[in-house]
Amino acid sequence: MIKVSGLKKAYGKHVVLNGIDADISKGEVVVVIGPSGSGKSTFLRCLNLLETPTDGAIEFEGKPITESGVPIDALRQSMGMVFQQFNLFPHMTVLENVTIAPIKVRKLPRAEAERDGLALLRRVGLEEKSGTYPSRLSGGQKQRVAIARALAMKPHVMLFDEPTSALDPEMVGEVLDVMKSLAKDGMTMVIVTHEMGFAREVGDRLLFVDGGVIVEQGDPREVFANPKHPRTKEFLSKVL
Ligand code: ADP
Ligand code: MG
User: Boundaries of each ABC transporter domain copy (predicted)?
Assistant: First the structure.
């Protein structure tokens, strides 16, 4: 579904991604871990061209997306993204947050968008909050709305950038449960996370990123049990 070859990203002289190769299959759940500043967010942002790669190539569903003339809006619709800071529209109700893009971008009739939106809110356990404004929600509820909003565009892949890092500990589980159910339904997902238990349980593959390269990858259970690279060992010794 996604093929990344020799991906590089630099800001001026600061090289942040220094040659990333990764193939992500349909239905695969890839978890990305690594120290702060190692380039994890930049990697995700390059996948949907929120950042323009300096070098290398990315293919999505068989088509090169890093060449000029690619319809970026259509591409972004196919890739849902969920951020650490939920980025909900504060002046819109929960249901409006979820239906605005389908109405404006997918040109769905309002009634249809609302029916789909309510179904998505039910899926994340928040149907009864449809008329509420984001300021009245807990962090965990906000993040579940953000996930429903991303799903409303019917993405083919979901990108998550530390979706639980801004949450109080007691709210982490409810967001991870929603992500687990997406994984179970076969959604292709790339997830940057510090939740090692989740990575072990839900990840099909783990990428350990350090210094802008994939230092080690493999089955999460195997990498956790038997990290091969010294940098992986050192990182895991601090977080496990
Ligand atoms: P991570 O998500 O692993 O913590 P990031 O991808 O956010 O790492 O950042 C990697 C490095 O790139 C950091 O040193 C960060 O300061 C730098 N960086 C990220 N975005 C920008 C930007 N827009 N301009 C300049 N430097 C940036
Ligand atoms: Mg980051």
Answer: 2-236
